[in-house]
Amino acid sequence: MKALRFLAAPLAVLALTASVSVLAHEGPSEKVTVLQDELLKNVPGKKAMMIEVDYKPGQSSIAHKHEGTAMAYVISGSITSQVKGEKAITYKAGQYWYEPAGSEHLVSKNASATQPAKLLVFMVLSPDEKVLIPLEN
């Protein structure tokens, strides 16, 4: 049992590092910070992640989809978001939205060219599911 504990910490760090690298993409991009990445004891086979996304003025994410369910909350500034099949909506600080698993997120950007924006994202997914999958052009 002690050996399992010693392995758990390095594996958790590896999983966290892998999760962050999945979020990275080429070119100037938003800053993504994984705040929590926890297996759900009451829902076997699922984990919860809490991610903070910081956008500089005018910055945007690449078009992508998530394998897991995502709920987003604007901490500061304003964010324009568009999921395939829906119109683009600009959310201000204190507003939030939901994206079902597999949604194609066509637009996610700071709505301001002069002010930064910050987004908190809570996701539920299987441990082997990808947080972000870039969409092909």
Structural account:
The protein is of the alpha+beta class and 137 residues long. The chain has one domain (2-134): Sandwich (Jelly Rolls). Helices cover 16% and strands 44% of the residues. Strands 1-2-9-4-7 form a five-stranded antiparallel sheet, with helices on one face. The protein is globular, with a radius of gyration of 16 Å. It starts with a helix and ends with a strand.
Name some characteristics of this structure.
137 residues, alpha+beta, Jelly Rolls, five-stranded antiparallel beta sheet, 1 helix, 10 strands, globular, disordered N terminus
Summarize the SSE layout with pairings.
Elements: H1 2-23, E1 31-39, E2 47-55, E3 64-65, E4 69-76, E5 78-83, E6 89-92, E7 96-99, E8 104-110, E9 117-125, E10 133-134
Antiparallel strand pairs: 1-2, 2-9, 3-8, 3-10, 4-7, 4-9, 5-6, 5-8
